[in-house]
Amino acid sequence: MHIHIHNEPRGMDQAIDAATFEAAGISGHHVTFGQNAADFLAQAATLEALVAPPWELRRLDLFAAPKLKLLQSTSAGVDRLQPFDMIPPGVILMNNRGVHGEKAGEYALMAILMLVNLIPRFVTEQRAGHWERKTASLARHQRLTIVGLGSLGGASAAQAKRIGMKVTGIRNSAEPHPDCDHTLTLAGLDGMLPETDILLLACPLTQATQNLLSAGRLALLPRGAGVINIGRGALIDETALFDALDAGALGGAVLDVFHKEPLPPGHRAWGVRNLIITPHMSSDDPLTYNAATLEIFKANLAEFAAGRRPLTEVDRAKAY
Amino acid sequence: MHIHIHNEPRGMDQAIDAATFEAAGISGHHVTFGQNAADFLAQAATLEALVAPPWELRRLDLFAAPKLKLLQSTSAGVDRLQPFDMIPPGVILMNNRGVHGEKAGEYALMAILMLVNLIPRFVTEQRAGHWERKTASLARHQRLTIVGLGSLGGASAAQAKRIGMKVTGIRNSAEPHPDCDHTLTLAGLDGMLPETDILLLACPLTQATQNLLSAGRLALLPRGAGVINIGRGALIDETALFDALDAGALGGAVLDVFHKEPLPPGHRAWGVRNLIITPHMSSDDPLTYNAATLEIFKANLAEFAAGRRPLTEVDRAKAY
Q1: Among B176, B175, B181, which residue's Cα sits nearest to residue B161?
Q2: Do B103 and A277 count as a contact with CB atoms less than 8 A apart?
Q3: Deepest in the core among A13, A128, B160, B182, taking most CB within 10 A?
Q4: Residue ranges of the alpha helices (H) in chain A?
Q5: CA–CA gap between residue A269 and residue A200 (Å, rounded)
Q6: φ, ψ dihedrals at B51, nearest 5°
């Protein structure tokens, strides 16, 4: 099979080079590398599988590759590709879900403990040069609600249980989860919010989850509650969240994702009270990211070669 | 026995009132409550045991209480009382060590994860309205050195092991600790610093530990290392630490204690790069603090009544 690896040209992340690919042990294929549309077009006539970041796919004319069968995204979130009209019919889209779990769980544990310990508040007071002592109790006295129990949310639930929290999970079916005290479907979220101390968003962005944390739902959270977002920015009505933080209605927020990324200089978010901003790094471990993605790709190739559906195939109707 | 409870008059912390005392189940005593020197003097002739915050003891004339035998500090750190000359000879000083462990361990876990995830750096960049994506790996790739393996340091070591870190403990004797990969005495610290990614100070302040993290020792840490202090401010040469942070020689610091507390407005600390400041709250759980202190006092009273040394008696020579 002819596999083409298209690397992110902006150099934000480490490239998948020949050495990385070889280390993954994917053998018996013709492999080419590129980083722009011209490189892609030079290989388009024969390539059958493409490995690329999803945000690059609008720059590449996938219809110019008549033999393309497999498309391996180097990201789990493929929301930006909806309605998937740049992908020719019949091409199987696969993401790398599962790669982000361990790192995301550790970030979630940190963010939870930061909210329990009032860090967003103290950082805001530090900016003003103001010392006001306030003590905080233990995480095990707080109630966590996690929206999404996939790789990110599941790992977060496991970390939260380890520190003794009461954990409620929101997922598509209300089937039990080993690290949640109970699970609900999205229909149960509104009833749960008034009993939530910390709300963690860890679900994909889809039409069903767009603006999930609306102004109305924010108002259902108890005074002093905390919000964490490691999913996608558009899960939240940002203006409503920033208003609630500035008004002191919420205790704080730790956000890793935003409507607009990178957040531009002068954006309102930079100055919002009791808000901690991290630059979309919660779920990516630079030491293992490419190797883990290629491991998934390798398993997907094997399934495809055996005539089965690849393990991380994206359901285009659901968008994850 | 006549027990006098002297509460903190500045109201920073919750008072030990009659209900709290009764809930502790310390029965069969004559108990009085006060919050200033006059209240104390009114009881001085007969009181035999005094419960008080250590920083209040310079305001009270303990020599005016001829029957005083037991002095229960409501804090673990009694460094401010050195050389203990306000305490009449023969009076047994007891601290509340052990009360702070669980809370301190959770704070330490948070601070470690914040340093692993570059939060001090991101908070500094947030202040400048600047987005610069940088990824960070997992805590289990980092090496933690903890100075002090008492209640605070021991609980911190347990939390760090749970997230897979390599943990070195520095203690008075090099005897093994169940949550440390190995232990060293203070004499081994200099040799350990170049192999330390995160240094956590959790020891009492004594003559031996004053200025422990000196400019010379700071220079032994690798570039990008992190520092956490949940002990006492004077364990660190603050100027040297702030210089190292501002110069970018260290990755970041999370400090809960300072030479001068409260940190006054305009203090240099407020503007130091890659520094997170919390207002001396790392080890105090407001939900359990007084109850846990009184539990220790109760056990100390029982030991004393049985003719034995109280369990948390302070060794005045060591100052803890």
Answers
A1: B181
A2: no
A3: B160
A4: 18-23, 37-43, 101-116, 119-127, 151-162, 189-192, 215-218, 238-246, 289-305
A5: 19
A6: -110, 120
Helices B101-116 and A101-116, packing angle to 10 deg: 130
Best mutation target among A8, A99, A103, A113 (most B Cβ atoms within 10 Å) is A113
Query: Is A202 within 8 Å of A156 (Cβ atoms)?
Result: yes
Contact of B196 with B210, CB cutoff 8 Å:
no
CB burial class (10 A; 0-12, 13-18, 19+) of residue B184?
Answer: middle
Tell me chain A's radius of gyration from C-alpha atoms.
Answer: 21
Per-residue model confidence (pLDDT) at position B12: 59
> What pTM value is reported for the model?
0.92
Confidence label for A12 from pLDDT (cuts 50, 70 and 90)? low
Count Cβ neighbours within 10 Å for each residue of B27-39 and write b for 16 or more, e otherwise: eeeebbbbbebeb
- The strand ranges marked E within chain B are 2-6, 30-34, 49-52, 70-73, 92-94, 143-147, 166-170, 182-184, 198-201, 226-229, 252-255, 275-277
Q: Which residues of B touch A126 (CB under 8 A)?
A: 270, 276-277
In degrees rounded to 5, what are phi and psi of residue B83?
-85, 30
CA distance A208 to A161: 28
Q: Give the distance from CA B192 to its chain's centroid.
A: 23
| Beta strands B92-94 and B70-73, pairing class | parallel
Residue A18 is encoded by which pair of tokens?
């020949």
Q: What's the confidence (pLDDT) of residue B123?
A: 98
Residue A131: which of B103, B137, B279 has the nearest Cβ?
A: B279
Residues of chain B positioned with their CB less than 8 A from the CB of A132? 279
Angle, CA of A50, A56 and A57, to the nearest 5°: 60
Is A265 a residue whose pLDDT tops 90?
yes
Residue A244 sits at φ, ψ, to 5 deg, of -65, -40
Rounded to an integer, what is the distance from CA A145 to the centroid of its chain? 17
Separation between Cα atoms, residue B182 and residue B170, nearest integer Å? 9
- ipTM value, please give it: 0.92
Residue B117 to residue A278, Cβ atoms within 8 A: yes
